[in-house]
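Dear Dr. L.,

I hope this message finds you well. Following up on our conversation about the binding site, I have prepared a predicted three-dimensional model of the protein together with pyridoxal-5'-phosphate. For your records, I am including the exact sequence and ligand specification that went into the calculation, followed by the structure tokens. Please feel free to forward this to your student if that is useful.
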Amino acid sequence: MTNTMPIVNPWLAAVAPSPIVEAKSWVLDRSFPADMPLIDLSQAVPGYPPALELRRHLGELLLDPTMHGYTPVLGVPVLRQSYAIHLSEFYSARIGPAEVGITAGCNQAFCLAMMSLARAGDQVILPQPHYFNHDMWLRMQGIEPVALDCRPESGAVPHPDDAARLIGPRTRAIVLITPNNPTGAVYPRETIHAFYELAKGRGIALILDETYKDLLPEGERSHDLFAEPDWQRTLVHLYSFSKVFALTGYRVGAVTAGIPLLTEIEKAMDCVAICPPRIGQEAALYGLQHLLPWARRNTEGLATRGELLRAGLERSNRWRLVSLGAYFAYVEHPLAGQPSRTVAKRLADEENLLTIPGDMFGAGQERFLRLAFANVSDDRIPAVLERLERFSA
Ligand SMILES: Cc1ncc(COP(=O)(O)O)c(C=O)c1O
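The resulting structure of the complex is given below.
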């Protein structure tokens, strides 16, 4: 038989299939009885729609004939301005609109930032377990992800001294995510600042993905890096409007960096998307202007749900909670000899509980599963705990 496939990029071909696509395929053709519905803890999505007032507002906007075209490559000026003000207030710093760019989601912000910082053959340090899309993107670009393992009992917080040992002549950046995906760990302020000093001292970038920044307790922020006099030389900050305003399908995020880097990012953005989606930008703008109190109420609800899950997992003598925060709990499963993928697949088959196995977050994660609990309502948490216990009994 002849191979009908054109020659493909071997770096891309070598990347494993998307974890979410794969996990969802386990349950795709199944139906579930009313007394044992599927509980989907696989994807990090808010389990509620955007605010009704936002949906009404967008409905009206769609009637406006000027709302449908391309926008400037890095977003409409009013949104860049509004987001720069939001960040400046949040971090008590002065961030200008020219230092922020709007992107089609935070994943795209990462891809563009990476494209602008590194080329094939370079290395980028990723704490492990990593967010799979970061690892995948680097590999398909021919950039080598270098795993920074967290020390046992560190609560899944990486140590800057370990990162220092991994930096070599080909290293271009260190990536941190806080609150973290997949572990939910909230990195201490000192840790983030120590990573910043390390990156600065070694002349590489610190990419800080704060997709989940709004899930911290009110008034808390993870760091004060924007108050550093020359943060633009080191810091590349990524953000998502997906979670805070429940806009996952609108594809809108942001990158904040020094103007020289944003100039490069603008070129890359022009090629891949021309501009972020117009309607997504309008949604983000409305959110920033009107919906932060709405977002705060949701955050509080999520924190309560997280605590319910935490309390249940801490009572278990089979499952061990590694860390929990934002949308996620990272747990050690009790079936020591079994690969995480087998455990996750069995949980889906036997208990109608869909989770993501640790091995999708990097090497050495076979004992773990990620539970993305934002997607389910509070009243499902007892069933999650019950199914986990029954499964491992
Ligand atoms: C750490 C992290 N970065 C980026 C993203 C993607 O966000 P967006 O929907 O804005 O592309 C996610 C989504 O789960 C995430 O967890």
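In brief: The mean pLDDT is 95.

With kind regards,
A. P.
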